[in-house]
């Protein structure tokens, strides 16, 4: 019923990703943790990753029984002002890092284009180690 989304705070994209997840996966509710340029921070700052994992695990996983984490970034990100290909690389790295740290969770990396199209960049199942 619950999954977890870690993504940029940009209001142009949050609703698009939430709708995509609810429409394409079996989840009714999407616990959403936002920050400007979140995927870049996951990749570059161990303390940041630890701080969001505490929220993910203590609240979303333990209380809401979330079993899937989505990590999303997007075009034209003010919090991570880089080209789309670099941003996609950060998303792939962030998804891999989240899966290694939380192997009991499925992890999917998503990229949202300015036109609202979504590309799946990484997809780790619970059994993928």
From TrEMBL:
InterPro entries: Carbonic_anhydrase_sf (IPR036874), Pro_CA_2 (IPR046871). GO terms for molecular function: carbonate dehydratase activity; zinc ion binding. This is Carbonic anhydrase. SUPFAM superfamilies: beta-carbonic anhydrase, cab. It comes from Leptotrichia buccalis (strain ATCC 14201 / DSM 1135 / JCM 12969 / NCTC 10249 / C-1013-b).
